[in-house]
ABC-2 type transport system ATP-binding protein
Amino acid sequence: MIEFMDLKISFGKKIIVKEMNDQFSENKIIGLVAPNGTGKTTLLRTLAGIKKPADGYVKINGLDFYSEREEYLKQIFFLENSDQLYANLTAQDHFNFTKCAWHSSVDPNAIIRMLKMDSYKNIPIRKLSLGMKQHVLIGMYAISDAPILLLDEPMNGLDPTSLRIVNNLLRSIKENGKTIIFSSHDLTNVHTICDEVLFLHAQKVIIVGNTLDIQQSYDELYLSEDVILP
Ligand SMILES: Nc1ncnc2c1ncn2[C@@H]1O[C@H](COP(=O)(O)OP(=O)(O)OP(=O)(O)O)[C@@H](O)[C@H]1O
């Protein structure tokens, strides 16, 4: 369970979220959607305890980051982007490390097979393409077996086949009782795999079930705000 209570997030006078009071139960894939610069990464960073709220708090499975930091952090896996991977280590190294650090029973070789990474699992990260590095990141999430996975635009750089494989992987992680929150600009894919969609708009959070037309909701919220060029 993720609980947001009177959460306010800001950078000084710049408010990202004014007041958030929402709850998310387990076993869900939640898409986080908003235009560039609205605050998706900032919200994920706040959930991960990297950014301190200006007010209010987040509880994860009843745990508070500031008073129960160690237990709180055991609930979440969050790697902001592939720049955080070790350039001289391989995918296999990252997977082995993640399995060990998280005391996970997930078999890295099964994930390598599922993500079709055999041909590059032993190549240093610095020699991989963006899409290949995204596979490494997503593989680490799967291997962590953490209850809550926070992903920032994980599908960027994936080809259509990889996207389908990653979607299937996320679905199977969810079926194991996990909660996945991922930010994305790909509304079609959000519609394909999410149970709920969380829009950030006008410093507020708007949650919609995925029965609605996501594109239509997006247009209604944001299109009128488009800048009209002279
Ligand atoms: N460290 C910081 N100090 C001050 N302002 C920041 C900082 N980090 C982000 N911001 C501002 O907060 C706002 C939200 O940024 P954020 O990166 O969370 O947006 P985003 O929705 O993830 O954008 P994108 O879709 O482009 O990745 C932006 O206006 C950004 O300039």
Notes: The longest helix spans residues 160-175.
